[in-house]
Amino acid sequence: MSRNQQSIWHDPRQPEDFLSATPARLELVPERVPDVELCTAETLRRNQEELQWYRRLYENIPSVYFSLDTTGIILSVNQFGANCLGYAPEQLINQSVFNLFEQSDHQRLADAFMGLLKALPPTEVINWEFRLNCPASKILWVKVVARLLPAGEGNLLVESNPSEKYLRKNPVILMVCEDITAHKQAEDALRESEQRFQAMANTAPVMLWMAGCDGLFTFFNQSWLKFTGSSTEQQQGWGWLEEVHPQEQNLYQETYDTAFNARAKFEIEYRLQRHDGEYRWILDSGVPRFTPNGKFAGYIGCCIDITERKLAEVALKHSQEAVQAQLEEMENLNRLKDEFLSTVSHELRTPLTNMKMAIQMLGIALNREQRFFLEMEKPQAERSKAARYFQILDNECDREINLISNFLDLQRLDTGAKPLVLERVQVQEWLERVVELFRARNRNSCEQKLRLSVTPNLPSLACDPFSLERILIELLTNACKFSPPDAEITVSAQLRANHIQFQVINSGVEIPSSELPHIFDKFYRIPSNDPWKQGGTGLGLALVQKLTRYLGGTIEVESGSNRTCFAIQLPLSREG
Q: Which of 21, 246, 429, 448 has most Cβ atoms within 10 angstroms of its Cβ?
């Protein structure tokens, strides 16, 4: 019966004017007493109050209550139910209940009624779910519970009218409708969400899977099924594990079980057999799922084919091993080279040292006999042949000694074997001493004018003075070698920000611009028309550049307008 339809419970023992102000309606009356005359007025009053109480309960109970005949005609509906459906009770009485339901559900409802009428003995039927078609109602779905009331049961009567005879002789269907709209909408939303997930999962370019709270695998997307060439039924549960390489099956099972028991995320790599029989490396990441109330719901996982990455890793590993082997081989070669150079330098230096000593002793012997040193002081064109040959022998011996020394020093700088010894240098005093030492050593070979220019009050410089001295001596030697006689060579020092800049400038000579990029190359020699001035090791400027970098500085060269300048910048202080 409808919640909104009113009903009248009629007791035939009442006087004819009982509820005379109320329209004729269906009423439930208590069982007859054997003798109506025995009922007192008090008993009738209590019965009336009880009946009114039950009627109020019936009218306002929060469900839709119908009584129907066997054809579905509404005989009564409660007031609350009628209101929920958007009708007054009078609008529903004697109307077909089928009009309240969607057309597509009429046949199912009729079949349900037929099953109810045929059931022996009469039984209650539950969990019928139907869609309503009531424009003014917010109820869209109801669950129907119905029971057949056989003819004559329960003293269900109405006031004298044609229906009373029907009710006494014919069965009645009692039907209760419960609002399940919210539940059905939630189901629809969940179903739509699942459909949306499956549509998205099946179009994803990666392999996806899902497992339930029991740990068994329940879903595989199309990418997975296409990869394995198997059906969902074959993969469900643990069937898919047969596709995993036998060597990784136990590893996967242990990893999964550990993560499952801890409800934790996991990640594992294993080989999975493709539909063509090839095993491919897979990166499988599983994440636990939880319901909105925090209950564990299983796992969802994503699998990516990483075979190419694994092959690249293997290739990279092999390449690294090959490179490591090459590095070790190079280290061995370098060690052998160092050992060779050390041996060679010793073997070469020993005879050269002996030769140098013999040359000096020869000079002393000749000087005693022929006053040879006076002959050596003459200009080269006026010297005797013996003096010229002696000079060539002495120069070439020095050249070979310098070649070996420079080469070994370059090797030590390349390997970092040369220790850095820092000292505080007073630039002006130190530079004056170096220039004077150079003059003394080269008074016979350096015919140019040496000029020193130092900015007053320069701060002290932290550097390795022996390396810096070697740099300046090498630059001065080159300047003397390639400058014409009587030219001027200037050595300067000045402050540039946090650096001291040293310059060695010689005039009367230029280096071609095409040669400047190679000036610091090993075994490079500055071009000259004088074959004597091309003599040298070809390692001097290369060593100068290495030593400058070793001191933490930079070196640059400029040449033009009959002038060449080497500029070195060194930091005032250096850490380490």
A: 448
